[in-house]
Amino acid sequence: MAEGRSTSGRSSPTIKTLAAHTGYSIATISKALRGSPVVTDATREAILSAARELGYQANARGMALRTGKTYQAAVLMPITSAAGYEWDGVEYTQILSGISQALDGSDYQLAVHGYRSFDDACAVARRIAGQRLADGLIFSGVLADDERIAMLVEADFPFVSLGRCRQPLVYAHVDVDNEWASHAATARLIAGGHRRIGLINAAPRLSYALDRIDGFCRAFREAGLEPSLDLVKGGDLTARFGRDSTLALFKGSVPPTALVCVNEATTLGVLSALGSIGLRVGEDVDVIAYDDINVSAYFNPPVTTFYQPIELLGRRLGEFLLLRMAGEDPAGLREVFRPEMIGRQPDDLGGRLSRRRPTLES
Amino acid sequence: MAEGRSTSGRSSPTIKTLAAHTGYSIATISKALRGSPVVTDATREAILSAARELGYQANARGMALRTGKTYQAAVLMPITSAAGYEWDGVEYTQILSGISQALDGSDYQLAVHGYRSFDDACAVARRIAGQRLADGLIFSGVLADDERIAMLVEADFPFVSLGRCRQPLVYAHVDVDNEWASHAATARLIAGGHRRIGLINAAPRLSYALDRIDGFCRAFREAGLEPSLDLVKGGDLTARFGRDSTLALFKGSVPPTALVCVNEATTLGVLSALGSIGLRVGEDVDVIAYDDINVSAYFNPPVTTFYQPIELLGRRLGEFLLLRMAGEDPAGLREVFRPEMIGRQPDDLGGRLSRRRPTLES
DNA sequence: TTTCAAAATAAAAACGTTTTTATTTTCCTT
DNA sequence: AAGGAAAATAAAAACGTTTTTATTTTGAAA
């Protein structure tokens, strides 16, 4: 099997090379490089100088074996299962980018572990913790009763989740206040006169989908109204799901006058569907989207969005994981963000009720 | 520093545990597990059985130190530099997904190395090869004279590039036939009567941007025409760039009647710009897009696209890297794909030349 | 039956670091 | 000046595997 050694013909300097060069022992050199106080300042300076001069870099494999640490920060990432399954998980690029920035300058590398289903995600998480394939783990797609969180808390294995479960556990996490955002979007539409509001949501087993429904309902109840739960659709975060859901909602006898969309992908599908049945946003129907990559800035017609830059979440995930792997209390590593509303439409009925509304006949 | 050992209270079984359990020596056990022919079948079976029974998993760190291998497959991924820099590199999720699928079942983990600029990408590649941070490398964003390729070929360090440079080197790569695709798109528009064709392209230092221009020009020349090179714009692959370029092109005295777009992100921006200046695709202007995540299926109005599922490219990248790390000749690890055209518009002038064309006054 | 060679297994070394234990040096007190 | 304790450095062990070298066992031939 090919060995890709550098072309200089000699291996990189090791701690033995440094020992031969300086006259100090391997143990002293190791302690000096680690900043141990049992080494004098003069000795430390001499060793650091020699290390710089020789271009010494500690070998990660030697360190890993002795310390038992992997120096890997693992991230679970969904494997999209079929070509053409467009835009599934595209926000992961920015999550990984944020995490990568947080890890920059640390000893840690970013290791991506793909999974195909939620059960597979649990199995991968179990294997990472059990076999010590990484020193810490980041994952998303949190369920209300996510067993990964229970398992990792019990194993005392460092992790940070993007999202929160609904179990009374203390663990590091970063999240968006989905209940608040859903409430704000829904309240805006109710204040604009809407009563038949559709919610294009994530799959209801996902914790934040439940949070979205809670916020949706709270807005109605605060207005003394019954929530239009018959107009709630839950599915995957694809443009196709957005489109199919929209077409289904507008086939009904009393279709929505407004839609709240879970993300930018479903929104694209929603807009595509509305266009195909001749409904104009801002005139025939109002659309509010949640967007974490700000791509809805380019949607035509423009839509009001609740925008949360996901790369910031990614950076915070990485920062928290480093702290958690360094032994910090997870109770101090929890943060929930509120997205910023970008109003691009008035989102109100604007005298529309008197006009005849086209519906899709079945 | 917290040690996340499993809660069973005992460490995972090591080869020493297996030795104590079976009565065989560590060396015999290692050879048996590796499939060495110097061990008898009976001995091997007994050892494999005991390994299964005890749930033995070889420790990657012990293996790594002794063999000198990292069991890491590195991928260079751009770090998006600012929040709001939307949709930059979103296709990486599907590339990583494809690579992850290819690596599944192998001993290799996917390690993501972020970079901020091309020079940073070169520095990271140099460090990965020089310090043996990984056993192989995958990267994209190939330049015509990409120094990463030259350096890694000289170092004989296993890698696969997504894209080709223009140097006479032999190395593993996966690519799309950009010259062919650009030619096909442009030829289609020329056949439809277009003469003023805009090319919303990638930055011209990128190898495939040059390939696109080559194909663009070849289509004109084959039709006995001069290419409309004044309508070629090169920049980053963002919706913003697509929009800004389009607005600039339509400010000109003789604006384009058709646009060829480098990817789905710039196309979104292009459509947004056209909508904002009142131009209708299929009527006032024709748009052909290159798309590797098939999201343009949801664009409204629909546009003709050249579609190449990028996850397939990702899988092939992973497959080739495993083969390359196993010592396979890079000359046998090269593949170029041709995207599939999905016609959603006739893309011809259709009697439009007689109509007055709105232009943007400066 | 004995001897020798091949096969099979075991012992030891190695990878490169960190940590533990041992030894040497230095400084202060009597 | 000598002795003892603290500081500083060195030697050895350890991590868990693979590989090299050594030893034992087995089988075949004389």
Automatic annotation (TrEMBL), chains A, B:
The organism's place on the tree of life at top rank: Bacteria
Signal peptide extent: none
InterPro entries listed in its UniProt record: HTH_LacI (IPR000843), LacI/GalR-like_sensor (IPR046335), Lambda_DNA-bd_dom_sf (IPR010982), Peripla_BP_I (IPR028082)
GO MF annotation terms: DNA binding
SUPFAM superfamilies on file: lambda repressor-like DNA-binding domains (SSF47413), Periplasmic binding protein-like I (SSF53822)
Keyword Transcription: yes
Keywords associated with the record: DNA-binding, Transcription, Transcription regulation
Record domain HTH lacI-type: where: 13-67
Pfam families: LacI, Peripla_BP_3
PROSITE patterns attached to this UniProt entry: HTH_LACI_2
Protein name as annotated: LacI family DNA-binding transcriptional regulator
Annotated organism of origin: Ollibium composti
